[in-house]
Design goal:
By secondary structure, the chain is an alpha+beta fold. It is built from twelve helices and 16 strands. The strands form three sheets. The chain has an eight-stranded antiparallel sheet, sandwiched between helices. β10 and β11 (about 235-240) form a beta hairpin. α7 (about 145-155) crosses α8 (about 180-195). It is globular, with a radius of gyration of 21 Å. It starts with a strand and ends in a 7-residue tail after the last strand.
Amino acid sequence: MKLHLFNPENDLALGLNCRHYTPPPHAAAIHRAGALLPMWWAEETDLILAPECLRDEAGRLAARFGLKGQVCGDASAFAGLSGTAPWGWSLDARRQFLCAGVRPEILPTDSAIDRIRLLSHRRMSIEIINRLDGHYPIAVETDNPDRVVELEKSHPGCFIKSPWSGSGRGVFCARSLDSGALHRRAEGIIHRQGSVMVEKGLDKVADFAVLFHCGEHRAEFMGLSLFQTEARGMYSGNLVAPQGLLWDRFGQFGLTAELERLIAQLEPILTALISGDYDGWAGIDMMVYRGADGQLEIMPCVELNLRMTMGVAAMKIAQRLGCRDIRFLGWEHRASGGDNTEKEASTNAGSLVILPPSDGFTLRLTPMSDCFQQ
């Protein structure tokens, strides 16, 4: 019996590194709207840490899609609880479980979470790339805002990243700022999180990720994730399909053999870096980009996400639904007008509401337009 928790604000909580984290309104709304998302991968006896008022909604989801998991607001009554499965680990995640009555002995210690936090720092992309065979673009970590301005001047269009942030937040392109504004913004990130990451801009063609599960002894490749981001780098949604179709879609770039070679290297690299310190899902974000000679290439580690990801969620949803074609999974947000009923949220032809509307957000699965192309 596991207790699941959807806490998508976790990367932000890691950045602040405090036990009582208050997420910004947008992140808090996604937390509430996605509270039942773990039902899509929960097992028969599992529990979902969510408000008791969602019991009826959980029952409707279970009946409609054959999902598992029981809503639980207080875990102290469940003596058989053997483990916890949050979206991601932080001091704040540990606090949420303790407040729900989970026994401290089945939770990671503060020192274990501190290790997970260090492994979740964006500098891990440098460590991973340095261990790969080949020459790849590599980020620069600095605690000097003057260095950030200098790097942007020498390579206009750099991307500046906070060490910890999620879903594309905490990432911006320096091209839009003058030197003074860039200096001030970099200085602010350094003040809050100790350093800042600077990446040379690439001619991006597509985003994707490789998914691993990390256990006590090894990290094992589990699947491919194809996703899309907005122009500013913010996550917008995932392709949902059988793995075979996703590999076929990726194959249009002519880089399948190269990706397979990289995955074979990444399994032992992640095992060496993470095994014994973390048990759970991990995703390495990658990129297909066009090099200076016009040829397509793979950027093998944009960042390591040491947590559950929407790519894993998309894979689990595809399995639960028995998908045979390619669809698109994304959060829709209606900023005004209040929540819609499920009937209203299902009016798009061929769409499927994966989670009921809440706080203006709806998680929807829609037919895939042919937009994931070179």
